[in-house]
Amino acid sequence: MKVLVIGGGGREHALVWKLSQSPRVDKIYCAPGNAGISEIAECVDIRTDDAEALLDFVKYNWIDLTVVGPEAPLTAGIVDAFVKEDRRIFGPDKRGAQLEGSKIFAKDFMRKYGIPTAEYKTFSSYLQAGEYVRLKGAPIVVKADGLAAGKGVIVAGTVEEALEALKMIMKDRAFGDAGGRVLVEECLQGEEASFMVLTDGKTVVPLATSQDHKRIFDGDRGPNTGGMGAYSPAPVVTEALREEIMKDIIGPIMNGLSRERITFRGVIYVGIMVCDGRPYVLEFNVRFGDPEAQPILMRLNSDFFDLLKATAEGRLSEVVVRWKKESAVCVVLSSKGYPGPYEKGIPIRGLDSFRNDNNVMVFHGGTALNGGVVVTAGGRVLGVTALGTDIKAARDNAYQAVERIRFEGMHYRKDIGDKAINK
Ligand code: AMP
Ligand code: GLY
């Protein structure tokens, strides 16, 4: 079978790597891919938002399954275009992708179907949003409605900070049309976890739990990023909490999707805040988390291709998912300056020493090849991911591996996994 993976970050490297282990997969293409992906797949130079060119590629090369990594092609309707032409694709259609593409759609959906979440109000008037912020006081959360590459959420500690955020989003249009409307939301306090399920619209298969590390600096300080590291499983999600999430969150989501006549075939990622032992939804994503996919896929003990194909074909009830007992930890190495502006093209050293090591994977995020040398090409450069008997062992293995890699300006958090270890 031939597979096309769309995307070129750490998540897509993990997707390609896990797919490549399936005996049913003969050939993998990745558009556009990166330096690490090019070692196990053929990278093709097509942009992730060029649905027409991607569809042509799939037809011309007889691709059996296309797997969409990032959210933007999904919200733009790539799945609708493929399905119309009878091409097998993993991911939700445009309407399903609204769960991530519009934060207001997601919140209204949660309210309509009784899913626990922070209280909120939506605004298209800058003045009214400001009045509401003053009325409610801080801390308070301001969110741009549309996609903003993970930067559209501001957790404001003061009223001034919240007003500043409203100005940036609604007046200065820092995220373009995504800032036409905003959500102003109650600030929840607690511990976060990522809960992902695979669904074909009928059957739901929960994936292993995980926890992301959003802030750039140790101790959860500094600005939010796409994610600086993750571990799986997440002990904050106890068996009892997991059951509660399935009953009070996943159940109502599936009911809501069916009532809205949305056929969802892909991943539903629920960002959860555990407050006083109860789960509340912070956000939905409609694709695998990055970097959560990296530790989760290292723990997967089933044929990933079978899983994704069954999901795309509406046969998820026929497959069984197994997990390794070991834990996994992913430490992200980022460019100096990220999540702000950063330099590219810096040579990376030490990568060769990881070949043939099944317990450590160095997933490439923003990398490229320059005359045969692997260089930095993005903010989140590498995701060093290791297995271990428990989170502590996995963390030690990951940090030992990090020691072997160097590039100028390399930054990483030193406390990935600490929350789980100190429990
Ligand atoms: P989101 O993209 O909506 O998950 O927001 C990004 C991050 O902002 C989350 O992972 C949380 O750390 C934080 N956040 C979002 N909504 C809230 C909220 N209502 N209360 C507290 N923190 C939040
Ligand atoms: N790591 C969070 C996300 O993928 O959105």
Write up this protein.
By secondary structure, the chain is an alpha+beta fold. It has 4 domains: 2-91, Rossmann fold (3-Layer(aba) Sandwich), CATH 3.40.50.20; 119-186, Dna Ligase, domain 1 (2-Layer Sandwich); 191-318, 2-Layer Sandwich (D-amino Acid Aminotransferase, Chain A, domain 1); 327-421, Glycinamide Ribonucleotide Synthetase, Chain A, domain 4 (Alpha-Beta Complex), CATH 3.90.600. The chain has 13 helices and 22 strands. The strands form 6 sheets. Strands 3-2-1-4-5 form a 5-stranded parallel beta sheet. A 5-stranded antiparallel beta sheet has the order 12-15-18-22-19. The protein starts with a strand and ends with a helix. Bound molecules: adenosine monophosphate and glycine.
Rg (C-alpha, Å): 21 Å
The CATH C-level name of the largest domain is Alpha Beta
Q: If helices are DSSP runs of H or I spanning 4 or more residues, what is the number of helices?
A: 13
| CATH homologous superfamily annotation of the largest domain | ATP-grasp fold, B domain
The figure for the number of domains is: 4
Oligomer state of the chains in this structure:
single chain
C-alpha end-to-end distance:
44 Å
Bound molecule types:
adenosine monophosphate, glycine
Reported by name, the CATH topology of the largest domain is: D-amino Acid Aminotransferase, Chain A, domain 1
Structural class label: alpha+beta
